[in-house]
Write a structure and sequence with these properties.
With about 150 residues, the protein is mainly beta. It folds into two domains: about 5-80; about 95-145, no CATH class. It is built from one helix and eleven strands, in the order E-E-E-E-E-E-H-E-E-E-E-E. It has one helix spanning about 75-80, and strands spanning about 5-10, 20-25, 25-35, 35-40, 55-60, 65-75, 95, 100, 100-110, 130-135, 140-145. A hairpin with a 6-residue loop joins strand 10 and strand 11. The protein is globular, with a radius of gyration of 18 Å.
């Protein structure tokens, strides 16, 4: 797979530079569509202080193949649009037909009923999220639940 480089403005108020650069071992691409790339940095280059590691960043692919430019922090709506899960406990992608399943969407506890059904012995005690996946080959679906 070809190497990808990220260029990052040292200030979010100066998108024209100066820049720091990061190699693809310092970030992970979590979504890509129509020239937009969502990335998460594992290690920030020196001089970058306007965002933290593991924040979802909105980037644009550059005409120079293999380069993305960080523009700003990604919005919640973009995270949903690009189908990027917001894991509570850590990545937990199920497999089916010998391959990782595709993430369909996330349901957070603040969007569903928080009252336990009558007769329920247990119910989540803190924040909870449910992650829905599907298999591209057999169309099986699975949900993973996590809570704090």
């Amino acid at each position: 797979m070809p190497k990808i480089k990220a260029i990052i403005p040292l200030s979010n108020d100066a998108l024209g530079g100066p820049f720091a650069s990061a190699d693809d071992d310092q970030f992970e691409i979590l979504g890509r569509r129509d020239g937009v790339v969502l990335v998460e940095f594992i290690d920030l280059p020196s001089g970058v202080a306007w965002f933290d590691t593991f924040e979802l960043m909105y980037c644009q692919e550059q005409h120079d193949a293999g380069t993305v430019k960080v523009i700003r922090k990604a919005t919640e709506q973009e995270r949903v649009l690009f189908r990027v899960p917001l894991w509570i406990q850590g990545e937990e992608v199920p497999e089916c037909c010998g391959r990782p399943m595709f993430f369909v969407g996330q349901i957070d506890d603040d969007r569903i009923c928080m009252e336990p059904p009558s007769g329920a012995k247990m119910w989540w005690h803190d924040k909870a999220s449910f992650y829905v996946f599907t298999c591209a080959q057999c169309l099986e679906s699975k949900a993973i639940g996590q809570q704090m």
